[in-house]
Amino acid sequence: MGEPVALRSVTLGSVRGFADGNDVLARLEADGPRLRQTVEGLVDALPAPPTVAAFTSGSFCRPPASCRSFYFFPSGDGDVGAGAGGGAIAFKGLEPCAPDFCDLLADFRRAGPSPHDIAEHFVFEERKVPGCLTLEDALFEAERSSWYQTAHLAAYGEPAHTPVPLFVFRHAAETVTRTSEALRHHLSTPAFRVVERELERGLGVYVYYYPSLPIRVRDIDFLLQGVAFRERLLAIMRDVCDPDEVVDGWVRGFMHLLYCGFLPGSLASLRSGMCCQPQNACIDGGFVDLDSLTRFDELVDDTAVLAALQFSVDSLIDSVRSLIAGRFDPTRGEGPGVRIDLHHFREYVLAMLRAAVEREERPDLQLDARVSTYLEPPHQFGALIDRLTTYYSRPSAFEQPAREFRAAIPGLIRAARQAPRR
Asked: Residue ranges of the domains in the chain?
């Protein structure tokens, strides 16, 4: 792995608290006694990734699509996930320390999923610094994960199947300066002006524990791209996972989030992604990248909550589809034509969510009433109209002054035409 990179630690309440005896970490240590020793070894130095590309090196690896994270799976016998409770330590944001970081930025200048190239898509569409993790984002993600793990332990008596925050570190000033110069070279001036302000607040590294190596659905889709449906499903069941158990884990985790007072995401994550999408839903039934979590009380009205539920459920359906059939159907395009398969996926996931409402209920938990409203279809016209009123906008308070202004428009036009030309 090369020489360790020493980074200056940022101590921030609950973020550091997981490494200082938090109840969630204590529960994990009971199952994996080596975990504490592993965590304590991270305080003084972190491992520098040998490359920004996909790699395996001893107990370290980076899957092909993980351009901001790599993983350490402590093992005593060479088996992935052995030791330390069978879990993995994730390092997110160390890429600026890799020797080929500039190669990553150069590669990001390819065409992206929007009119921008990949690098500027990150800047303008996803509000991210290409190839980097800002200190602010690292702290925010660790904080959200901490809140949820604490709430889940209190509600369900065990840690959630999601990341457990361990540390957030701040990159040294010289690393930020070097990264800034690299970004200046590879970004347009408007894009660099955006990221320059983020860099001034610092770059971060987020270190967390996850109960297994976080192989995501996106990784499986990459592995089996173009394989026909039946062959794909046989390969998944034979070599990857039990799809029924995985989907059940996602649905259970999705409902636990709701019962603990969190939405998996909101429309604020429409471009940047959410935890239950294919790039963050893992084949062990868990979720990672919890920066999308949104408390119900953080949204301003029922419309925003229902939109967040719609986006979250659609994202979960996308993950189920990606696992079972692949995200892109090789038999036809992804246009707006009739897609019977999408109907079946939606009805299957919604049925599982409705069943999970009762199954995951606990005496001291109260599910937000809007979740039941969303999951239960209206059966009468009046109920349909009530729900539509949360979507269709009420008249603007400024419409009357605008209508009154129309009478003045002809006179303003005449005045403009009669004004002397220069």
From this structure: 1-213, 215-422
